[in-house]
Amino acid sequence: MDPSEVEIPPLKDLTIDNITDNVHLINSRCPDPRLKYVLELLVAHVHDFARETRLSSQEWMAGLQFLTSVGQISSDVRQEFILLSDVLGLSLLVDSIDHPKPPSSTEGTVLGPFHTHDAALESNGAEISGDPDGEPCLVLCTVKDGEGRPIPGVKIDVWETDSKGFYDVQYSNRVSPDGRAVLKSDENGQFWFKAIVPVPYPIPHDGPVGKLLKLLKRHPYRPSHMHFMFEKPGFDHLITSLFPRGDPYEGSDAVFGVKESLVIDLLTVDKELRDEYGIEEGSKLIRHDFVLVTESDTSKLRNERAMSAMRAQGKRMKMYNGLPVPDVD
């Protein structure tokens, strides 16, 4: 931007104590109230962090180099920044804030770094895994609204690892999607497919996030789970997972994704289900009823919780494009 076209307030003599106010001053002309508010708080918290920890130049440079390495290793099939957000608990926090759920609905959890947009649209009954070593698993589910009414035509992304704990995109010789599919719920809100029993696995730990976990004396493992993502106009976007009960990492998920309501019991295919769905008797079975929330209900709940949180902080706020900003009128 041409400096002659910008009116910059004069800066004061810069010190440890007034640098934050100076940055706020020079950023204060931002016309977008939400961006101005978010950046103001970001600067304030980062500056307070530096002051409170007495951050050294060496540590600051190490942090910059760490973030640089996170970016350098990221690619179309590996998002190290999402992984970093996950292991810091930020991904789950943001999802919980942005997609609040009433008690009767299905809770969300982290997307993870391995979702792709190239999964094929399959019919109900599809076999999504080509892994011959995986233990067969029948997945029978429904999608309903908060009143228990079936929701037809919901787009459902599903994805999982193979029996060795790797997603298809982690293989250099990947030629097509495997262990993933896109389905649609039928007129009764039902969808079903054949998969393999999920297994626990380590998140990628050969990069900067893995080094961080090692420094923190944390393991990189996730408990076994299967990913689901639901989309339909009029309903709040839902990203969630199901976690078979009893996994050794159920209580120490490296990305903080486990919620008690998402922990399920693995069942067994009986003779009746064998005959109806064509999967061997004795195979594992996942049954689950997912409950979606309307966009309007989510928006109302999000606004209520946002304003309640702002009042608790003693702030006078208003909503702007569905997000809180200072009320300066």
UniProtKB/TrEMBL annotation:
GO molecular function: catechol 1,2-dioxygenase activity; ferric iron binding
Entry cofactors: Fe(3+)
Intradiol ring-cleavage dioxygenases domain: residues covered: 112-292
GO terms (BP aspect): catechol-containing compound metabolic process
UniProt keyword list: Dioxygenase, Iron, Metal-binding, Oxidoreductase
InterPro entries linked to this entry: 1_2-HQD/HQD, Catechol_dOase_N, Intradiol_dOase_C, Intradiol_dOase_core, Intradiol_RC_Dioxygenase
Domain Catechol dioxygenase N-terminal span(s) in chain numbering: 32-104
PANTHER family, alphabetized: DIOXYGENASE, PUTATIVE (AFU_ORTHOLOGUE AFUA_2G02910)-RELATED, INTRADIOL RING-CLEAVAGE DIOXYGENASES DOMAIN-CONTAINING PROTEIN-RELATED
Recorded family membership: Belongs to the intradiol ring-cleavage dioxygenase family.
Protein name: Cathecol 1,2-dioxygenase
Organism: Myriangium duriaei CBS 260.36
